[in-house]
Amino acid sequence: QAAANRLGYAASRTMRVAQRLYEGVDLGSDGQVALITYMRTDSTRVSDDALRAVRERIQADHGSRYLPEKPNVYASGKSAQEAHEAVRPTDLSYTPARLASLLPSEQLRLYTLIYNRFVASQMRPAVFSVTTVEVTASKGLFRASGRVLRFDGFRRVMPASSKGEEPQLPPVSDGQGLDLLRLSGHQHFTQPPARFNEASLVKTLEKEGIGRPSTYAAIISKIQERGYVEQRERRFFATETGMKVTDLLVEHFKQVMDRGSK
Length: 262
Hints:
Blueprint: H1 2-23, E1 25-26, E2 32-33, H2 48-62, H3 96-99, H4 105-121, E3 127-137, E4 140-151, H5 198-208, H6 216-225, E5 229-232, E6 235-238, H7 240-252, H8 254-257
Antiparallel strand pairs: 1-2, 3-4, 5-6
Helix pairs in contact: 1-4, 1-6
């Protein structure tokens, strides 16, 4: 319950910050300016005027190498709210750097995320070479698999985090000599899938089209209130009640509970 409350509080606080950016903030000589479009939407639709503006910005800031021939178009989810555009900056001339001294830190961080993601969404993709490097040492053969970045594309604006990504390998050439800096041995065993935590559960809800961003915290809170799951060490564990309810649902509502039977 406490964890769900923290998640709900964080989501609510982010929406309050976004609300201020949407309603307008005081930018000194420019007066009150609304910096982002309506934020309670999961639409991917972008107006033609906004597409022209962002393409001009990419061309001016990064050059034609980073500009696709045509605007990138993204499919919305089946239940997406299409009444509004995607969340984006209202005016790309208000760059994060320009607003750095005018916005409180929370507003600036959120605006920077929205601004950079919008620009990145209309840039060319990054290009990697999938590479396997084999290193021979005496009778040993060591193999490393990963990627080598060939063109940064949208990552020029939105560098990716290292979580869940293949390692990037340094450029090497065939026959190149390598110096051994450190050698360590590790033994690995097959592990079952990790239990859900709050972040992975929200990701799965989003992937399966269950609920909406505004209801994820309530869903997580409700399954705990009803005793279907409990949290231990920030992981969800099914209770006996939860397992019995699930068994009954699977038995009597297979067409709903088992997607594979459709």
